[in-house]
Amino acid sequence: MMKNAEAFEAYQKRLNRVGDHIAAHLDDSLDYARLAEIACLSPWHWHRIYRAVYGETIHATVTRLRLHRAAGQLLQTDDRLEDIARHAGYSSVAAFTRSFKSAYGMAPSGYRADGRHAIFDKPFTEENDAMYDVEIRDFPERLVAGVPHRGSYMEVDKAFGDAVGKMAAAGALRPEMAMIGIYYSDPGLTEEKNLKSFAGLVVPEGFALPDELELRHLPGGRYAVLRHKGPYAELHKAYRWFYGSYLPENRYEPADAPPSEVYLNNPREVSPRDLLTEICIPINR
User: Fold this and answer.
1) Starting at the edge strand that comes first in sequence, how are the strands of the sheet with 276-282 ordered?
2) Segment 184-210, tens digit of pLDDT
3) How many of the other CB atoms lie within 10 Å of CB of 2?
């Protein structure tokens, strides 16, 4: 009989395939029989296992990912609400509005116009600097075990699921491991399909790297760290303010290393408006 930890790891590996399939077919109707086949688990029981492992139903996963994409469309495009609602799987704007407001705390139209992300439209000044949570920190070199991602940064969630799943399947996942993303490409200069990033977890020196995972080194040194509260879809505006206003106003010059993001809580466990992310930009001393 398998021990509990071994059973969990076996389930995690199978369910990770389900997560990959959902991310790749987000606009398709849910076929529970097909998902059971992908998980190689009984169609009578696999969804109970999924919920026990991930803490949410398949329907909740799909809804969360579709609303995340919709939030990005609201901020980054001029698409009509009707089109965004339909793309998110809703038959009416009213139904989409109810679901979006429940998750994001305001209606889609209000979120697009003046949601909390609007603070990043204001320049940094001594008078309004209190509304921004930025500090300067010194970090040691960090090792990150994970998987590379190529494509839209809005879809990097799939890579994180893959990294966590592989770590759990190998029995190497630990609660103290911080989840971190490294972003190598500038979306303003690189086509979306060619954006390069890395999704993983911070691991100690001498860590035995599981199969199918890669290791990256984040340089140590001084970093400007912006603590962002809110949906991941808003992060691009925080970056624009960080680079275009805060750094030059404070005469900080970015160092020759990529920016990274540390995720302080889990989108499966908190609402999008309560997500906490630290944007870390290396700067010269």
Assistant:
1) 134-139, 221-229, 276-282, 260-263, 179-183, 196-203, 142-150, 214-218
2) 999 888 999 999 999 999 999 999 999
3) 9
